[in-house]
Amino acid sequence: MLPEIYTRTVLDHRRATVAWAVGIAVVGLMYASFYPQVSEGGMADSVANYPEAMREALRLNDMSSAAGYLGSSVFGLLLPLLAMVYGVSFGARAIAGDEEAGYLDLLLAYPVSRVGLALQRFAALVTGAVAIGLVVFLGMLAIRSNAELDSISVGEFAAQCVNLVLLGITFGALAIGLGAATGRRGPVLAGAAGLGVLTYAAHSLAGIIGVSWLRYLSPFHYYIGGEPLRNGMQWGDAAMLAAISAALVIAGVTRFGRRDLNV
Questions:
Q1: How far apart are CA 215 and CA 143, in angstroms?
Q2: Residue 50 region, left (φ>0) first, then alpha (ψ -120 to 50), else beta?
Q3: Domain range holding 218?
Q4: Which of 15, 61, 112, 189 is most buried, by CB atoms within 10 Å?
């Protein structure tokens, strides 16, 4: 029964996972392919006229380089927010969705522990996030030459995509943890999405409002603060995202194990 929960979850979500992976990759590739026009069209000069606070918040200070452009628009805004939404939507269904639908009772009637159930659902989330990151990575390599992104190495693209995977897992872990602790899908969606927006704002605006330390409380800081598109894999940041995910899942599962589910 134990491996079957993971396998069944992956199979049940295979179409949604493919749709998320293709959709996120298409968005990223579409905007990444605009880089030649941006670099040649004088957009960097136009951005220089923006208020300094806006340039810093939106990471617009270097739009002329491939790493600067992708780090601001594609990997700095669009893809991380989409990865966050994927993680939150999957995580909210993983435990809380089943509990509200009455399916959780049926699952726990089999010889499977609550911890085992939650961890295998989390493993399915990880599988989906890895699939999304892999499709984005392969897509970026496919357009790398034609979109004039050769200044970014394969390893640097890989590093940024690994962090994208870890970011999606982090917010999925948050939703799974909240769902396991509360059993209510609606509040989980609202709470996890709200925290995602707040932490993104904290990462973007902390320096502007004079509280730079606040960005260290945001997963987005560890996702892109080390600029993997320029500097490659930042192992400390990746480890921090993994640690946050583990802590969220452990906290939620601990509460899940003690909660009265009437089963």
A1: 32
A2: beta
A3: 2-258
A4: 189
